Amino acid sequence: MSAPEVNPEVAPEVKKLLSILKGEMSRKEIQQKLGLKDEKHFREAYQQPAVAEGLIEMTVPDKPNSRLQKYRITPKGIALVNKRK
């Protein structure tokens, strides 16, 4: 059995994150768009799984805690979004 390139078992939270991500956005901007207040919940349910799956990437990967850190959708993430339409 060969694994598909885009994992169909993406969490609903991650799908929601991908659907609102436009260009490069900071964590705060993404949280506001999603209507989320809890930073820890956002990191654990949305941000970390999306980064781990390779669906979003950091603009400053060498400094994950940089105040200038932003996130953008990867080609893999774009493929997933387009597949859902």
List keywords for this structure.
single chain; 85 residues; mainly alpha; Arc Repressor Mutant, subunit A; two-stranded antiparallel sheet; 4 helices; 2 strands; 7% strand; globular
Structure overview:
By secondary structure, the chain is mainly α. The chain has one domain: Winged helix-like DNA-binding domain superfamily/Winged helix DNA-binding domain (Arc Repressor Mutant, subunit A, Orthogonal Bundle), CATH 1.10.10. It has 4 helices and 2 strands, in the order H-H-H-E-E-H. A two-stranded antiparallel sheet has the order 1-2. Helix 1 packs across helix 3. The chain starts with 11 loop residues before the first helix and ends with a helix. The mean pLDDT is 90.
Briefly characterize the structure.
The chain is built from 4 helices and 2 strands. It has a two-stranded antiparallel ribbon.
Task: Outline the fold blueprint.
Layout: H1 12-20, H2 27-34, H3 39-52, E1 56-58, E2 71-73, H4 75-84
Antiparallel strand pairs: 1-2
Helix pairs in contact: 1-3
